[in-house]
Each structure stands twice: as structure tokens, then as C-alpha cells.
Amino acid sequence: xxxxxxxxxxxxxxxxxxxxxxxxxxxxxxxxxxxxxxxxxxxxxxxxxxxxxxxxxxxxxxxxxxxxxxxxxxxxxxxxxxxxxxxxxxxxxxxxxxxxxxxxxxxxxxxxxxxxxxxxxxxxxxxxxxxxxxxxxxxxxxxxxxxxxxxxxxxxxxxxxxxxxxxxxxxxxxxxxxxxxxxxxxxxxxxxxxxxxxxxxxxxxxxxxxxxxxxxxxxxxxxxxxxxxxxxxxxxxxxxxxxxxxxxxxxxxxxxxxxxxxxxxxxxxxxxxxxxxxxxxxxxxxxxxxxxxxxxxxxxxxxxxxxxxxxxxxxxxxxxxxxxxxxxxxxxxxxxxxxxxxxxxxxxxxxxxxxxxxxxxxxxxxxxxxxxxx
Length: 374
Fold this sequence. Notes:
By secondary structure, the chain is an alpha+beta fold. The chain has two domains: 3-197, Tyrosine recombinase, N-terminal domain (DNA polymerase, domain 1), CATH 1.10.150; 214-373, Intergrase catalytic core (hpI Integrase, Chain A). The chain has helices at 59-83, 88-96, 103-116, 120-137, 148-160, 166-185, 214-221, 230-243, 249-254, 286-295, 319-343, 354-365, and strands spanning 3-7, 19-27, 30-40, 45-46, 51-52, 260-263, 266-272, 279-283. The strands form three sheets. A three-stranded antiparallel beta sheet has the order 1-2-3. A three-stranded antiparallel beta sheet has the order 6-7-8, with no helix packed on it. A two-stranded antiparallel sheet has the order 4-5. The protein is globular.
């Protein structure tokens, strides 16, 4: 099986005391080395992790470059394997000959940079979208080959081969366009040849957003559930979100006592929304305060204490780990919300996000200011 690994060669040190970082390609019991263009003092290399140590002043940027080259090497090996038998020298030549003006090579740099900046959700979305485009083209893609004709053929492929909805197709093209426009800004692609001047993906279709009536919300509130059970907790999370204008699950999970402030007899929740980066400030309604009191009956949580036990005891030491834990917990909560809906006799697809749509709908019908909940 072809493998690629970043390495340095012991003793290969230049006059400035720096050593090159290579990609070691292994295939068919033969090994070749490809320079990454990176040179560092040997003491800054972590051989076990195959990465530059954090002590190097440019460690993050260098590691992002190395990761991009690894992704490039892995994709090229898959491409060669799809064409038939190949040698390690074939692989090396393809990797060394990769043009900087290649869409996929540039996309790898963008994706690695997103991960380095902690933009994990965007990193994962872009990576998935680029992987699908690569599966369609099956070869390097110079920027001049990204034409309106190619994009139209790819749109048809997404609709027919994958069966993607128009909305999903637009998500894919939004990622591709964002990468292409960044390449223009960085001088890697020509604005005059921008294919998005002549190509527009299929229009999005309005989606049906499930929402509950207030009577249905009350039926969930009135369910007899064992205190401390998983269903009991899940109901608390959903109802707290509902009464706080539909706070998103990821933001709810990360809430700490720092977000809560007493204002006389009132209690205010202020937090930064992960999706938009904007700040949200809400005076807690009595039902939300009652839910909070179930977890903190004697006092408010401290500035670094989680409001709800969704992340307590979990390893969230890196942005990637945090996203992974939140995604897993969200999936579990959504699974049990279906059980709550069934017990409450609600024949609707109940997910955490429904709390947001339900509150917005009720705010409209009661004449509240929609801007304050959007």
C-alpha cells in the first residue's frame, strides 16, 4: 500500500544548521524522497508526530504546508492507482511536477489553513466538497481548465450521480467558488477567466422547516420523565434553547457561567454565536431560569464552569476535538428528541434546530420583533 510520511534525514544539515523536510514515498518495497521546500533546525522536528514542534516560531504555518503536501501525495497515489499499476517513481514524478496553478493543490493549502485557524466546520465542508470534485475529474485541474462548461457538467453529475438536491449542489459550488475567488485574490487565478461570470448553479428550493406549535411545546414540557435521566436532560436542553430564542446546540454546549449576568432581579445571557461571530444578549424568561435552576439550584456557575453537562469531562483541548465532541453529542440529543416527540404524540421531525424555527414562528404570530431572534 502506498504511504507518504514527512521526515528529515539525520546528518543532512546545511551551513546554517538547517535540514530539509522531505515526504518519504514508499510503494512496492521501494522508497523515494520529495522535498517540501521547508528547512528547519533538526531540534525542532518531532519524529514521532512527523511534525514541526510548537517551539518553532512558524510551526503552525509550516505544519499546514506539510499537511497540504501530504493530502496532495495521497490524492495523486489514488489517481495513479485508478489508472493501473504504477511505480514509486511514477508517484514521485507526478508529485514533483504538480503545477502551483492547480486548483486542487491550491485547495489543499486553503483547507489546511482553515484547520490551522481552528475553522473546523468550514475545513470539513470544503474538504468534502473538493473530494467530490476530485472524484469527478480524476486528475490535476489547472485553473484555466475550470471553465463554465466543466462546472455545468459537474452540476449535472451532482444531480444525477449523487442524487444531490439543488440546495446541496449550491453548498458544493459555494465552497468551490470561495476557493477560486481566494485564488484570484492571491494571484493564482485570472479574474478575466473567472468561470462564475458565465455559470450560476441551480437555484435553491425553499425547504420545509419543521416547527412546533406552543401547544406541542407544552406537551413536551408536561411529559412525566425521571429526573436525571437522559431524556430529562435532553428535554431541558431543547426547552432552554427554545426559551432563549433558539440558541444553537454548539453554542449551548459551550456556555459557561461567564455568559450569565445578574441585573437586579433579572438574569441576562450574553454569548457569541459561533456561526456568525455576532453577540447575542437575551434576558432569560422564567421557564429558562427554572431549567437553569435544576442544574444550579444554589448559585450560578463560575466563569469557567459549563452551564450544562454536555462537555464536562470531555477532551476538548483542540478545536478539532471540540467539534468532534459537539457533533457526537448533538447526534445523541437529536436521537432522543425523536423519542420525546413520539411520547408527546407529535408527528413531526423533531431536532434541536426545530427550537429555533418554533420560537421564530411564535414570535411572528405574537408580533415580536423578528430581528431580535434572527
